[in-house]
């Protein structure tokens, strides 16, 4: 009885919660080990954390401008499509679906499972099969919620954002108290150059940028944002500054309480911190961290489903995934599509190998998206944008992204080569299926299958343009 389309239900507060909830996830609780291992010392690791924060701010500002110039949802995909063309956008979509997003979701899910079980098995490590089972159960709960209601998934994100900030506060406060009392012994020789290996620095940046990743999430739901021209830049700037301050204080607290060897030896840095700082909250903080990861999973599903939705609408993905549930007004097929790949990666994956595996592809395409901003400015000088950043911001961000991607071939050639192969494998698919249209004889079985699935899932195409 009413039009079927994605409603504008994401207010400024919900956009802020989405960004905070996506950035503050498993990264700050597992990445300190990766940053320290590849930077070599406490001092250089803090420099990497701050540099990653500034780099994230540059990228967030670029995406805020792109979000005011390009009015469609879809994030990286739609920005590359509108600025650089159909081939690079399809390669991103291909790599994102088969590598970047399932690996990222698997990392966060595994962190959720590990921290959720930590209080029950401490001081021993939780069994790996149990961690993977709990990880999958958490992911399936979030998947179901996003299929059910956009409003409830947004409300959950707001509530969990408060939990995330509380978890950071429980780490920051005792660390700062000890630091104020003069416990600075772990910062002696903080910039020891003997352990610094330059070709490992890209991996340190990957680990740090993974912790900050999520600053781009508002661009994925642009069509569902209330007053996006105002709310995207405002939510981006406030949330990234908040996270930079929180992360720097959290890392200082880690190093105040734990030594370098303790951080490197810990499978869960936040749990080791609590065990050393105050034993009374051993069972509380891991649960808060797990809920923090739960919020990141929720934000990831909420945003990536919109990428598949928009790609289907643009003709680069099967048409079923541009359809919306007739009563729930959620992109149900796009939400459910990640189910099998994430399940497989959780079952077979390891957190740190998965992190390097997907980071190459992610930062390659983010660099291309900000390059697209420069191209778009050059092609459309007449276009008025309500939010505009200085040119050196997209230029410097693009150069750093592409340089880090190139350097990573020396740091971790095996995982990076796998990621590169995954991207390149999209070329034949694009030219055989997307570029060359299939004949009507070949398309008829797909139309039949789409029709049957449409009836089964109760979904139809969007009736009103929201861009």
From TrEMBL:
InterPro entries: AA/rel_permease1, AminoAcid_Transporter. Its main location: membrane. It is found in: Membrane. Pfam families: AA_permease_2. The chain crosses the membrane at residues 12-30, 42-64, 76-100, 120-142, 162-183, 203-221, 233-257, 277-297, 332-354, 360-377, 389-410, 416-434. GO terms for molecular function: L-amino acid transmembrane transporter activity. It is a multi-pass membrane protein. One of its GO terms (cellular component) is membrane. Keywords: Membrane, Transmembrane, Transmembrane helix. The keyword Transmembrane helix applies. It comes from the Eukaryota. The keyword Transmembrane helix applies. This is XCT protein. It comes from Nyctibius grandis (Great potoo).
